[in-house]
Design brief:
Elements lengths: L3 H4 L1 H27 L3 H37 L4 H26 L5 H24 L4
Length: 138
């Protein structure tokens, strides 16, 4: 069973907003480091951002898939299509993180990496809005 924080739109929204705001700030820092050609530090920050996505957003997504999403469909089978779409969003986030890790492993630290982090932010923002539409108000 999912925790009470996941089941209510206000607390769930706060969880999403905190993680997303941190990702935005870190990505802006990365972008500036690359523009300033401080590439060693940029590489370090990129790995921190990957860890952030893996430990905050993707772990949260996994717990939603294991508990919350199943419960929502059991309570209201009409939500099944929305849950499939939300799960696909999670998979897109995982694929983007995997792609970024591949670039970093090749020692690539440039605008391509920033663009992928920005794509993560955009997909996550749209996902969060869609998810909050199907959560109980309180």
């Amino acid at each position: 069973m999912s925790g009470p924080g996941l089941r209510h739109v206000d607390s769930h929204s706060a969880i999403h907003e905190a993680a997303l705001n941190e990702a935005v700030e870190l990505t802006e820092l990365l972008d500036q480091l690359i523009k300033d050609s401080i590439l060693d530090k940029a590489m370090e920050v990129a790995y921190v951002i990957v860890e952030h996505w893996e430990t905050r957003t993707l772990q949260h997504a996994a717990s939603e898939e294991k508990g919350l999403y199943k419960e929502l469909v059991e309570e209201d089978p009409a939500k099944k299509n929305a849950i499939v779409e939300l799960t696909r969003d999670h998979e897109l986030l995982r694929l983007l993180v995997k792609d970024i890790k591949g670039l970093l492993k090749q020692k690539l630290i440039d605008d391509q990496v920033v663009q992928r982090f920005q794509a993560l932010i955009l997909v996550d923002r749209l996902h969060n809005e869609a998810e909050e539409e199907i959560l109980p108000e309180h």
